[in-house]
Amino acid sequence: MGGNIQVSGTQTYSSGTHIVFNGGSSQSIGSDYPSNTGINLIIENANNVSLVGDVIIGGDLTLSSGNLIVGTNQLTLQGSITPNANFIDVGPASDIVINGTSAFGTFPFTGAETLNNFTFDRSSQTVDFEADITINGELALTNGSLDFSGQTLTLTGTKSGSGSLLANSSSTLTITGSGALGTVQFGVSGNTLGTLNLNRTGSGSVTSGSSLNIGTALNLTNGDFNNTGQTLTMINGSTLTKGAGASLLGNSPETTGSFNITYEGWTQSTGNELPGGSTEINNLTINGGPITLDRAIQVNGDVTFSSGSIDIGTLSLTVLGNWVRNSGSITATTGQVIFSGTTSFSGSLDPRFINLQITNGATVTFHSTDINIEGDLLLGAGATINSNSGTIVLDGSANQDFGGGGASINDLTVDNASNTIT
User: What is the Cα–Cα distance from 236 to 50, expressed in whole angstroms?
Assistant: First the structure.
């Protein structure tokens, strides 16, 4: 066919019919294209063929030469597709529907693309995305699976259907927009993500409908991640970052070893992003706040203050690694920081604590500045204190307790003239 197809009246096509577009200039297909089952479309036009209406291809689509341009229309594919290094070109207002029963394979996007709605409804079948794709409308996985292994899938609208996503450790899922996204479930054989980003405003939320493994980063900036009844596993060495506008609801993360936690943004409290075990937090970074601790925790790696502060209240923060203070502070009432491993102090600001305990067997190395204690100081008998020319300064504004426990320290200064040191 060298011209366009957009006609009115009765059209009769038998199953197995091939309609070929092979013009010498660009061509178009309108909504009167026959939607019968088994009607095959072949594009043999290097100048491309464009939709000028919603089109249902009831048979197979073959792109022998040239691309099929969807534009602001809906393209429904009910058969197979053979792209032959050609593409289906979509845009921000394009809708794609894939239904039927046969195997589908890879959707031939031109590259990184943005489209409106995407529907996949093929029981026990899979559509593959081999480019970074943004879906601004609805992702409807009615039946079947969408595999975006090695790619970035961005969802800004909603997600529906009982179908599954498939991913791998090189995949990124980014959820933005506002309001409730819906439930996201992953297939058993593809439930590992490299990175999951949640930044959804306006009472934004996403519900996990399956087990999920995070290989690199879980970034909760805004919105609720509802993990009720599911297993979220942080792979050893991965990082969970929580912003002030985000919450992890339901089950706390599990881990294959330990993972890092970073807090960013303004005032917030810790919550279910904290794991249940004492060995599961590696490094803790405070990059905002104040952060209010809602439970006692143990950090098996380093604690770093980049900005902001943490308020431990009446709880304990146990640290086995290093203490780095470049900005920010720690506050408490009766709570204490406990060093029970091998710790070095560093950073551009002097360490300052309310209540500090260094346990029996711990080794703490000061940097060459003051270590200020506003509350109580308790040293275990077997604690090793490497002063490095630093001085412990007791400078509280109330009575302070000092329990030396037989540990040896180099210099101690009392700067609390109006109160009692016991």
Answer: 49
